[in-house]
Amino acid sequence: MINTKLGDSDLLLVIDVQNDFCPGGALAVTDGDAVVPVINRLAEGFGHVALTQDWHPAGHSSFATAHPGSAAFDTISMPYGPQTLWPDHCVQGTAGAAFHPQLDTRRAELVIRKGFRAEIDSYSAFYENDRRTPTGLAGYLRDRGLRRIFLAGLATDYCVYYSALDARRLGFDSIVIEAGCRAIDLAGSLDVAWTAMADAGVQRVGDLA
Ligand code: VGL
Ligand code: ZN
């Protein structure tokens, strides 16, 4: 069991709660908007909250439309490894890239944008998909003395998963709050994600009281 008494070195990292990942959005996650009231409640218990925002330029290389002959959800080979292709989503400045209107962003201390380089995708809040180009979040957390990172948001099996693994890899305690997450679940990706997270020492809690 983890100690869920929250303190000053704990941060809630809210991943990509944006319109395009919610019902009606371009890359809608089933029931994605259900995380909003959960995350709003969770955030009240934390002294520190940070948000991530998927933030792609038009024509981004992760979009199927940028690869003639390919379709959304195909996997292609990129210089940094395999890349799933997505419908156009979270284009900078569009309504789809905005946070869900009911997400309470007031207490967020940091918004970290990712996926803004045209040639590389970024699932993780910490690194681009080459697993080497940092976003700067680790430095921020270290400078602020934040050591235990609780994660919630969209999607469990992509951006939450990669962020949770990287947090652990960087030496932070990493805890995924299941009630605050929903998954894309593409070809078994959710099971893969939970198994890999457990193997890496990422903790999983159903909810916080
Ligand atoms: C995400 C696919 C593409 C996510 C972002 O937030 O999980 N998934 N871009
Ligand atoms: Zn994206």
Describe this structure in words.
The chain is built from four helices and eight strands. It has 209 residues and is an alpha/beta fold. The strands form two sheets. Strands 5-2-1-6-7-8 form a six-stranded parallel sheet. Strands 3-4 form a two-stranded antiparallel sheet. Helix 3 packs parallel to helix 4. The longest helix has 14 residues. It is globular and about 50 Å long. The site of pyrazine-2-carboxylic acid has 9 residues, from helix 3.
Extended strand count: 8
User: What's the mean pLDDT score?
Assistant: 97
Shape: globular
Small molecules held by this entry? pyrazine-2-carboxylic acid, zinc ion
Name the structural class: alpha/beta
What is the H-and-E element order?
EHEEEEHEHEHE
Low-pLDDT runs of 5+ residues are none
* Percentage of residues assigned to helices: 10-25%
Spatial strand sequence of the major β-sheet: 5-2-1-6-7-8
End-to-end Cα distance, whole Å, is 14 Å
Rg, nearest Å: 16 Å
What portion of residues belong to β-strands?
15-25%
Count the DSSP helices.
4
Largest sheet, strands/sense/barrel:
6 strands, parallel
Q: Which features does this protein show?
A:
4 helices, binds zinc ion, 8 strands, single chain, about 210 residues, binds pyrazine-2-carboxylic acid, about 20% strand, alpha/beta, two-stranded antiparallel ribbon, six-stranded parallel β-sheet, globular
